[in-house]
């Protein structure tokens, strides 16, 4: 089958492209390359350098052929940045998704898998793990923009029959075990690659934002899910939305604190990680851990890379092999 992947040159999107190709599907990627990399994609993948903010250009790609489904990853995704520039996040995330959904409805696309976020649950402190039935209380404009898209998909399903899967995943991490793709953000903001680079001496001491949270060691606790396991969940979700729409949380179900991530990098790399405490970041909850039981029961999904050391090992291997990311 042929699938359209928006944001397919980004971190999670590129791994989903590899998963689709490995499963024997044809893939077309739409990406404006604002944060993605053409080098993250195999040379023979059909690629459209298109911005979803351009409704006419988006319509042209979507109408160019018949799609078995669309996987939508394209978005801005930094919680802290959304707190300082919220209108940019609403424009870039919400309007681009609206243009895509409108084109899908117009061209009779029946299935869309949406890359949502655990930031929907980033409001007041709550107990973990978090199920899909938890109250949605976004703690940032980023989370709010993703929830707005979920509501559009809800009504597009009810009125037009567009079946969707909203995948609310937690912290994507790691790299393709075959070394075909990895994490290359510019600037890099994710904890695991930053910690690895600090251990390798490629950056100054790591700043640990908040050491006074009500957690077991005072640092934030997050549920890390390997990016290949995330990609697998997207493919499984496609099979669930032939006749209905779904929403799933995706995570390992166990959380690791920031200090535990540092300790993992030290174990895996054999190097010390220089770090220093820093003030909390606005919008960061103390704990985000997923209850993925619904996804597991309905799709048979289970993470292959469940332990933090497994995740760190693939990320470390990719960063050592690609010191300049996709420019290496």
UniProtKB/TrEMBL annotation:
<protein>
    <recommendedName>
        <fullName>UDP-glucose 4-epimerase</fullName>
        <ecNumber>5.1.3.2</ecNumber>
    </recommendedName>
</protein>
<dbReference type="InterPro" id="IPR005886">
    <property type="entry name" value="UDP_G4E"/>
</dbReference>
<keyword id="KW-0119">Carbohydrate metabolism</keyword>
<feature type="domain" description="NAD-dependent epimerase/dehydratase">
    <location>
        <begin position="4"/>
        <end position="251"/>
    </location>
</feature>
<dbReference type="GO" id="GO:0003978">
    <property type="term" value="F:UDP-glucose 4-epimerase activity"/>
</dbReference>
<dbReference type="InterPro" id="IPR001509">
    <property type="entry name" value="Epimerase_deHydtase"/>
</dbReference>
<comment type="subunit">
    <text>Homodimer.</text>
</comment>
<keyword id="KW-0520">NAD</keyword>
<comment type="similarity">
    <text>Belongs to the NAD(P)-dependent epimerase/dehydratase family.</text>
</comment>
<dbReference type="InterPro" id="IPR036291">
    <property type="entry name" value="NAD(P)-bd_dom_sf"/>
</dbReference>
<comment type="pathway">
    <text>Carbohydrate metabolism; galactose metabolism.</text>
</comment>
<dbReference type="Pfam" id="PF01370">
    <property type="entry name" value="Epimerase"/>
</dbReference>
<keyword id="KW-0413">Isomerase</keyword>
